[in-house]
Every structure is written in C-alpha cells, then in structure tokens.
Description:
This protein has about 500 residues and is α+β, with helices and mostly antiparallel strands. It is about 45% helix and about 15% strand. The protein has 17 helices and 15 strands. The N and C termini lie far apart (about 55 Å).
Amino acid sequence: xxxxxxxxxxxxxxxxxxxxxxxxxxxxxxxxxxxxxxxxxxxxxxxxxxxxxxxxxxxxxxxxxxxxxxxxxxxxxxxxxxxxxxxxxxxxxxxxxxxxxxxxxxxxxxxxxxxxxxxxxxxxxxxxxxxxxxxxxxxxxxxxxxxxxxxxxxxxxxxxxxxxxxxxxxxxxxxxxxxxxxxxxxxxxxxxxxxxxxxxxxxxxxxxxxxxxxxxxxxxxxxxxxxxxxxxxxxxxxxxxxxxxxxxxxxxxxxxxxxxxxxxxxxxxxxxxxxxxxxxxxxxxxxxxxxxxxxxxxxxxxxxxxxxxxxxxxxxxxxxxxxxxxxxxxxxxxxxxxxxxxxxxxxxxxxxxxxxxxxxxxxxxxxxxxxxxxxxxxxxxxxxxxxxxxxxxxxxxxxxxxxxxxxxxxxxxxxxxxxxxxxxxxxxxxxxxxxxxxxxxxxxxxxxxxxxxxxxxxxxxxxxxxxxxxxxxxxxxxxxxxxxxxxxx
Length: 489
C-alpha cells in the first residue's frame, strides 16, 4: 500500500508549494541527503516534481537559492515543455473566448483556468488541458463542432460521454486534442462536475457569453472532483486550496463540506487540507479555514495518497476507493437499494472488464444514460475504422476535424430543434412510463446550431453532420455501425 506519510518522505513536494513551510535551502539539504543515501536519484526527484505539475514553481524557487543547480538542470526539459504548452493553451483559451462570444454561449473556465488568477503569476499554475464548463449538452456539442472547424479533433483516448440525472438533465464531457498535439480542450457540461462513478458536484450555470473564470470558491468543487476521482493528491491541488483558503468564510466552508460529503469526498477534502498545513506556510485566516474543513470531514480517513509516481501501487487503492464510494454517491440520486448496489457493481466492472471500443457481432441493446451509466460516444468515422482495421486501429485514425464554417455564428434562434429522444422517451414524456422521464435540452434563442437527436434505443446520437455510436462497455454492434454509416451517406 502507498506510504500515507508521503508528504514527509518527499521534501521535493515543498519546492512546488507557493509558500513552502521550510526554507528552500533546508529543503535542498534534505533532498541532497536522500540522493547521497541512495534512497532516490536526482532524476526521480525531478520526476516527482513533474508529476505534481509544479515544475515552474520549483524552478522559480531554485533560482532564488544556492545549491540547486543540478536539480534545475534536471528540470530544464520539463520547463521548456511547460512553456510551449502554456503558449498553446493561451491561444486555445483566446479561441474559446471568441467562439463563446460568437455562438452566444456562456463558458466557465474551471480548475486551473480559474485558480491561476490568484497565483502570484498566472503562468505558475500549470495546465495540462483547458478545462471549461457550459450549461448544456447542445452548447458543448456546438462548441466542440466549432473547435473541430479550427483543426481540433475528438480525443480517441478519452471519448466523449454523457450521463443523465434521474430528473433528465444531461451532463458529461467532450475532450478534443489541439492541432499541434498540445492545447487539449476538455468541455464539461450540465448542472455540475462529475466525479468518481456517479458523483455530481453542483456548479452555478454560466450566464455571460464568452470565457470567464469560475469564481474561486465554486472552483474548489471541480478541483476536489478531479483530485478525488484520481484518488491521489497533487501539490497543484494543495496550492489551489491554499490560495482559496485566504478568502473562505464559515458558510462557504460548510457548503463545500456538505457537497463533498454528498459525493463521499469529505475525507479526501480533509486530507488535502492536512497536506496544505503540512507542507505550506499559512496565516491565521488560512489555518482557521483549513482546520474547519478538516473538522467537517470524517473522524477517520484512509490517509492521503500523494502523487509520487508509484502508480502501480496506487492503482489498487483507486479501484477500492472508487468502488467503495459508488454506494454513497448513488445515494445522492436515489434511495433505491438495488440501484445503489448496482452502482457499486458497475464501478467494479468498469475496472475489471475491457472497455476499449471494438466492433462486435452483438445485439443492439438500449443505452439510456443514467447517473451510474456512462454512455460513451464513438465518432462514426472512428467506429468505421475499428470495423475495417480492428480494435487496435484507433491510433491510426486520422481524427475528425471539420471544414471551416462559412457562417461564424451558425443557425440559432427559436427555429433550432430540441434534443430529440426516441419514441420510448416520447411516451415517457406523455406520462406512460413508470420511471422519471428524460428531459431534452429546451429549444430557443439560447440553443445554438441545432439539437441532439438520439436514435431508437439511444444507439446513436446525431448533432449536425456528426454521428456518434453509443456504448457503455466498449462493444459497438456491427449492425448499428453499418446502419449508422448508411444513414449518414
């Protein structure tokens, strides 16, 4: 099992803290002692810093102290990569702001796009992706469609997915890779941030067209959801909580703790607060806020797992914790014991069964999204590639960029079609179903570029000219792929 005393055992983590608890010179002495004893080579120290996404902060600290030249040289390739990535992401965020304004879509910048505003320099907050959030599935698809007209393509390693709350609100994620391989854009949509197997942390809906940072306190929810989903804590998470703790009031802390409790991440939130207190220098207001967060968590926790690169050892912990949390997370959606037990079994099956997309001779079953049923959306072009070349052909797929749009605004307005479900859903909406009916996106002036159209049984989803084949466990029925291809011609 991972060493839960990892923060103390890894002094290099303090090099990435915005306000390290110990002087940099003292931390370097501890690192030198570890290297001299053969406990950890210097390249491994640099790798721990890289994995915590604190390369630029560490480089800043090393520039102010004597004796850090060797470690600085180990970090230099990572520094240059971070600088290139930051430039690409700056261009991506400028494009997102412009597209959001043109399409009249309000967009939140979440996680790093929000928290970096409170860093001493925004460039110190490293971003792997540009994470954004929009209010509905139609808006996410419209934004993704327009990004694909600027050279972006659907990320085949992390395919789009969609779930639904029991009252019918769709939520999910659509990740796209930039034209240069950098600048991935991760579009989250719906009433909250999805975490774990079926947790949902609430977020306010954006209202101003264009890209704007999610307010810092609200941003702690996607920060927590992301960290809790990964199970391990990074110093990036520590810094984000450190800056937010300067302005957290009692009511905000209690609301955050309650939301964390609903998705069974109150212990994880308390663990992040503990690590903040351990490796950073805090003032009285920050300590009060962090201690209140700890006090709002469970009396006993499993202990923090800090990102140190030992993924072979932390992977079993992720399986156990994600599966264990699924029962409580499902309880926020339903009181049904069978449904909650089913969520636990589904979470375990996700790790136990192969989920890579593959075309098979299987019956076309209904794939209705639910809080505990993640419906993956495989672009039809990718499904065809897998059908023709086999399940290992995804890396050879050229992607799905679209031709540039002649009309930058696209069709909007009251004539735009709504999210159309299959006949079974129509019957449910008419009151003939016994379970809560799914509700589509409302058509209207704020519904850009058409609507989402599900086929019968939720086997395919169409948006504009794009067709996606749905799957829960990766199996793509050959007949569905064939029929969808013929319909798209």
